[in-house]
Amino acid sequence: MECLYIENLDSSAEKIIIAGDEFSHLKALHVREGEQILASNGQGLLATLVVEVLDKRKASAVVLNFYEVPYPSERLGLALGILDNRERFEFALEKAVELGATDFYPVSGDFSQKHTVKIERLEMKAIAAMKQSKQAWKINIHTPVTVDELFNIITRKHTCLPKTCDNHLTTIYYADMNSTNKLQANNGNAILLIGAEGGFSDREEAIIAKSEHVSFSLGNNRLRAETASLAGLSIIKYIKSGFGI
């Protein structure tokens, strides 16, 4: 069953009109009248729909049922140094979404060749990944932060989604090539910190060293940032699920 993003999806609706980009997506998927599709509003609401009528510019679908999906009890964020290669940076975001990350922090590092990102473009990539993985909640994409700012963020509650905030402490997990530690995941919110192509400067490494964090190794091979992001998030998810490693 394919999934669409319907931002104004409302649990009181009996019929949904699909137009614009999502209609184009529906057509590209070759969905036919009478077929069922899934819809997500990115704010915890899913719906099963049956396509009723397809015309040249829009489609109408009847609602079969709605599902309220609670926000994850523990947040999982990826703080990734802004990469010079946009496609690799966006790939990391897409995979973070598919793995269930709740937050994405572009990090403007001392060695970063780029210090800005196009939030609207990242939002589009994130929505596409959310649809691909059939999720109810859209990832929170934050404005770029420095390493200093990132560690300041974890000393206070998240403020991006007040209704979902909790009192869990947030642990920053730092994938460090010089570490020999195996990852021991803590309960509570987590942020995985990965550097850009040039890594972190001595100044930034000093900030990390002085701040509370959990450093761990991803093995002896030097990994690209997007590979380290995918591996690190997967390990954290696996350990926190209770299976261990």
- Read across the widest sheet, the strand sequence of neighbours is 8-7-6-10-9-11
Number of domains: 2
Range of strand content: 25-35%
Name the CATH superfamily classification of the largest domain: SPOUT methyltransferase, trefoil knot domain
Radius of gyration: 20 Å
Descriptive notes:
The chain is α/β, with parallel strands linked by helices and 245 residues long. The chain has two domains: 3-68, Hypothetical PUA domain-like, domain 1 (Ribosomal Protein L25, Chain P); 76-240, Alpha/beta knot, CATH 3.40.1280. The chain is built from six helices and eleven strands. The protein has a six-stranded parallel sheet, sandwiched between helices. The chain has a five-stranded mixed sheet with strand order 1-3-4-5-2. The protein is elongated, with a radius of gyration of 20 Å.
Short overview:
α2 crosses α3 and α2 packs parallel to α6. With 245 residues, the protein is an alpha/beta fold. The chain is 28% helix and 25% strand.
Which descriptors apply to this entry?
245 residues; alpha/beta; Ribosomal Protein L25, Chain P; Alpha/beta knot; 2 domains; six-stranded parallel beta sheet; five-stranded mixed beta sheet
Helices and strands in order:
Blueprint: E1 3-5, E2 15-19, H1 20-28, E3 36-40, E4 45-54, E5 58-68, E6 76-81, H2 86-98, E7 103-107, H3 119-132, E8 140-141, H4 147-153, E9 170-175, E10 189-194, H5 202-210, E11 214-216, H6 225-240
Parallel strand pairs: 1-3, 6-7, 6-10, 7-8, 9-10, 9-11
Antiparallel strand pairs: 2-5, 3-4, 4-5
Helix pairs in contact: 2-3, 2-6
